[in-house]
Structure formats: C-alpha cells, structure tokens
Amino acid sequence: MGHAQSSELHEHTHPAAAGPSSRAFNLLIGASTLVVVLQGVWAGLFLREGEGYNEEWIDVHGDGGLIALGLAILACAIGLLQLRRRRSLVALALVYTALVAVEVYLGGLVGETGVLAAIHIPLALAIAAVGAGVFVRSWR
Ligand code: HEM
Fold first, then answer.
1. 99 near 125, Cβ under 8 Å?
2. Is residue 9 part of a domain?
3. Considering its fold, how many domains does the chain have in total?
4. Given this model, what pLDDT does residue 4 score?
5. Would you say residue 76 lies in a domain?
6. Phi, psi of 49 (to 5 degrees)
7. What is the Å distance from ligand 1's center to 108 Cα?
8. Does the Cβ of 30 fall within 6 Å of ligand 1?
9. Rounded distance from Cα 95 to ligand 1 centre (Å)
10. Cβ–ligand 1 contact at 33 (below 6 Å)
11. Does residue 85 sit within a domain?
12. Is 86 in the pocket of ligand 1 (CB under 6 A)?
C-alpha cells in the first residue's frame, strides 16, 4: 500500500503542476515571436530618413508579418488540440495571435496614412512581450 501511494504522489507532482506540454506548440510560438522581433530589424533596414523606403526590405517585412501570423495560427491549432488542460496558456496564445493579425492589418495601412505607425510600432513591442511570455510559460 505504501508503494502505491508513493507512485501516485510521484505522478501528481512530476509534470510540473501546469499539466501537459507540446514541443510543437512551444517551438511554433517561439519561432513566431522570433520573427516578430526580426520584423523590427527589417523595419530598421527599410526606414531611411529622407531617402524614401527601401522596397525590398518592405517586402521582406510584409512576408515576415504573414509568416509570424501563420506560425501563431498553427501553434493555436496544436494548442487547442493537445493542450486542453492548459486553458490559460492557449488563451494567451489566442490573444497573441489576434494581436499579430491586427498588426499585419495595420501594417498594410501604415504606408497610406503614416500616423498609424504610432500604433503599429508600439503594438509590435507589446506583441513581442506577450509572445515571449507565452513562450516562457509554455516550458513550465
Ligand atoms: C518595431 C517593429 C516594427 C516597425 C518599426 C514597423 C514599421 C513598419 C512601417 C513603417 C511600415 C510601413 C511600410 C510601408 O511604407 O508600406 C510597416 C508595414 C508593415 N508591417 Fe511593420 N513594423 C514593425 C513590426 C511589425 C510586426 C511585428 C509585424 C507583424 C507581425 C508587422 C507587419 C507589417 C506588415 C504586414 C506591413 C505591410 C507591408 C507592406 O506594405 O507590404 N510589422 N511596418
């Protein structure tokens, strides 16, 4: 009896209270967040004072936005299927993905009405923070 009790205890405490984890989810969220950070690098390469924008890096930046969004959507799909016991983690990933979608949409409008950059750029920082938060929590 003593033996059964101790193995039960072990099962309960082993996978770090938070519950199951999915390596695919973790890596997809991490990759998406990394692309979001790189978006700032591409932006730094196309924003040139007084010389107009560098079109090639704008294209990379536009594609990067879609890649970040695609990775985030895949992560959410896997999270919804495999991480049912980690609702708050998956919910945070859904919030992250929604913010990336808004960011991509706004990005397309920045070129037309420059004032939207005042939302697009700070939102990018917030998204990077939320993505990093999801990533860190996903390993716990
Ligand atoms: C510090 C970070 C960022 C800065 C400074 C920045 C800046 C800009 C600027 C100035 C534009 C307008 C370019 C134009 O004239 O068309 C733009 C467009 C865009 N941005 Fe960002 N951005 C950042 C992060 C992001 C992130 C995180 C995403 C999405 C994950 C994103 C997605 C887009 C998209 C899809 C466009 C439209 C590109 C196009 O017209 O083809 N940006 N961004």
1. no
2. no
3. 1
4. 47
5. yes
6. -60, 125
7. 7
8. no
9. 19
10. no
11. yes
12. no
